[in-house]
Amino acid sequence: MSEQPLPAVPYLKIPEGEDPYLEGQRCGACGSTFLGERHVCSKCGARDQMSAVKLPNSGKLYSYSIVYRSFPGIAVPYISAIVDLDDGTAIKGNLINVEPDPDSIEFDMPVDVVFADALGRKDADGNQYLSYFFQPKQ
């Protein structure tokens, strides 16, 4: 069992003694940025032009869906969201700390990326996981 939580996804980086961050890949040919590791740019098709970049921790809500039915053990309702980060990278995650009601959610509302326990889930070895979420900018 690990003392420090493990990243819930491979593009969530947890450097020792530093704050966690999301890592993307930026194309050296066209400048587009994507979440996660890749070798080919999805926008221009350039090969082997991708390099790792630290993604910003703020952006704006692009789209969302309020989820009322999910897998057993997953609390509902929750808000699944797509956020355009400040550098233009689009990422998906859950929007927290806001009521799951359309009257409480605004498109283009400023949000922050926050890192927290992955909803208390542990693996068979007892390891805890760190995940990322979005919350309205305060």
Could you explain the architecture of this structure?
- The chain has strands at residues 6-7, 12-13, 21-27, 33-35, 50-54, 58-67, 78-85, 90-95, 110-122, 128-136.
- It has 138 residues and is mostly beta strands.
- The strands form two sheets. It has a six-stranded mixed beta sheet, with no helix packed on it. Strands 2, 3, 4 and 5 form a four-stranded antiparallel beta sheet that branches.
- It is globular and about 40 Å long.
- The termini are far apart.
- The mean pLDDT is 94.
List the helices and strands and how they pair.
Layout: E1 6-7, E2 12-13, E3 21-27, E4 33-35, E5 50-54, E6 58-67, E7 78-85, E8 90-95, E9 110-122, E10 128-136
Parallel strand pairs: 1-10
Antiparallel strand pairs: 2-3, 3-4, 3-5, 6-7, 6-9, 7-8, 9-10
Distance between the termini: 35 Å
Low-confidence stretches: none
From the spread of the alpha carbons, the general shape counts as: globular
Order of strands in the sheet with most strands: 1-10-9-6-7-8
Q: How many individual β-strands?
A: 10
Count of alpha/pi helices: 0
Give the mean pLDDT.
94
How much of the sequence is in beta strands? Answer: over 45%
Helical residue percent? under 10%
* Assembly context of the chains: single chain
Taken in chain order, the helices and strands follow as EEEEEEEEEE
Rg, Å, rounded: 16 Å
